[in-house]
Each structure stands twice: as structure tokens, then as C-alpha cells.
Amino acid sequence: MDKRSTPLSRVLRQAGGPGVLEVLAERLSGADLTTLLLEVMRRRSRHLSPADVLRRYGHDRFVVPAPIPFARLRRAEDAVLSVLPDDVEVITPAPVAPLGTHAVLGPVDQNNVVTTIRNSEVAADPTNALALEAAVRRRADPSRPVRLAAVQRVVRAQQVEGAASYAHFTLFALVTAGRDTGDLAFEREHAAEHLAIMTAAVRACGQADPQARVTVLDERFERVAAELDAAPDPGRSGGRGYYKGLCFKVYGKGLEVGDGGFVDWTARLLGNRKERLIISGLGVDRLS
User: Fold this and answer.
1) Which domains does the chain have, with CATH numbers?
2) Which among 108, 281, 269, 282 is positioned nearest to 177, based on CA atoms?
3) Phi, psi for 240 (deg, rounded to 5)
4) What sign for the dihedral angle of Cα 35, 36, 37, 43?
5) Helices H, strands E: what count in the chain?
6) DSSP 3-state of 141
7) What is the Cα–Cα distance from 70 to 20, expressed in whole angstroms?
8) Known InterPro entries for this protein (predicted)?
9) Could you tell me which residues are beta bridge partners of residue 172?
10) Hey, what long-range contacts does 159-165 have (CB within 8 A, 24 or more apart)?
11) Is the pTM of this model over 0.70?
């Protein structure tokens, strides 16, 4: 039995046995489960005192303020946005997304996302929400490419160690959605464009010499990588199974600040294998 199942087994024994989990996860509709959980949380909140709330605020890593001063973050956000081409639309995503947005598209373990009790989840990566919006727009007008960007404060549940690693942080995200036109034309154009925007954004934040590294995941993309201003990174392990064809990382002052690549999200969302999507993101906290 793995470590994650041990606490679950204990809880299920106290709650009446494994059948409880089956009822909650499989038999109740989403609306009925929400109704139940809302009442559970309403009752639990009634027993809390102001001291309980303050104690939780002092110990819960998800709710404490960002350690980076607001003015520094705002300057970095403005600097990143300043390099965007005029035809990229900046939108403001909602702070929550539909349940499964990260696990279904990612794939990301649902335990690494803060799930709400209303069939939604707190944003963990703005590229997922931008992909949903791009799919809606591509469905409405398949003749036009979609280019969207956003700056969003996100939350991730997994424990992450290292410099400038927090439970919540600000990400700049960029997505370009379009259609396969043959000869890897979409991939060649937009991989170069995304890397150019990412490195320009890093420079705009005061880091003069950003470095890009590219990893080929499919030999057909060797010609795409050959046209990029990036060093090869064949030993990269992260992102395999997440990205398709090609992915890249961006570094500033030796610290990883950005990541991106091609994904099949819009193709799956729209049921059309000709759909293409490239995503990229920068950690604004690390650039501030």
C-alpha cells in the first residue's frame, strides 16, 4: 500500500468503509456532491472562532501574502507585457477553472491542484485557461488563428523547494492556436515567435542575457529546433508526456524562469487532429 492510500484507508474506516468513497466519487452527481460538501463546510465553519481563523492564517502556506513587494511584482508584470506584439490579446482569466482543467489537459495530478467544492479548481497554470478560451474561439471561427496572453496569480498544492518557490505566484502565459498547414509551417513560425517573446520579456525585466534551451521530442521537429536561437537540451527529463514534438526552457541569471512547447490540447478539446497549439509561460516572481 502506497503512502497516499494509508491516510485514505484510515479516513474511510472512520467514515463507514470503502463504500463511502464509491458513493461520493461515482454515484452522486456533481450537483449533489456540491450540495453535500457545501453543507459539510457550512457546519464546520460554524464551530470556528476568530482565534481559529487567525491561527490558520499564520500556518497555512496557501493564504499568506506574497513575500515579494507589490511594486516589484507590478514592475515585472508591466515589463513582460510591454514586449507583446499588438495582435496578441491580453485577457483576464477567472481565478478558477472547470474541474479537471489541469489533470485532463496536462496531465497533472489532481492532488497538485487546489480543488474547490463547486466542481471547479483554483487556477494553477494560466495556459490551461487560455487553451480553453482559444478552443472556444477556434470553434466559432476556424479560419482565424488565436493569440492570447495573460498575467495571473496561481496556486499549486505540491511542495516545491528551491529559490523563489512559493505556493502561490504570478505567471505570464502566452498561447497561439491555429491549424496545421503542412510542412511544419505553424510550428516553425510560432516556436520562434514564442521564444523571441519570452527572451525579450526576460530582458525587459533587467536580465540582459537570457538563455534558451530546446528539447526535441519527435525527430520530425529537428528542423524546427534547428531554426531556433536556443541551445540543444537532449537530456531534459521534465515535460516528456506533457509536451508534444518540441519543448523549451528559458533561463535568466542561471535560474529557470520560463517553459513552453507544443501541446495537443485544442486538438483534443475540438476533436480535430489538425488543430495546433503552442504554450509558454514565465515566472514573474522570479523576474522581479
Assistant:
1) 5-47 (no CATH), 70-287 (3.30.930.10)
2) 269
3) -70, 130
4) positive
5) 11, 10
6) coil
7) 45
8) aa-tRNA-synth_II/BPL/LPL
9) 151, 282
10) 163/255, 163/286, 164/255, 164/283, 164/285, 164/286
11) yes
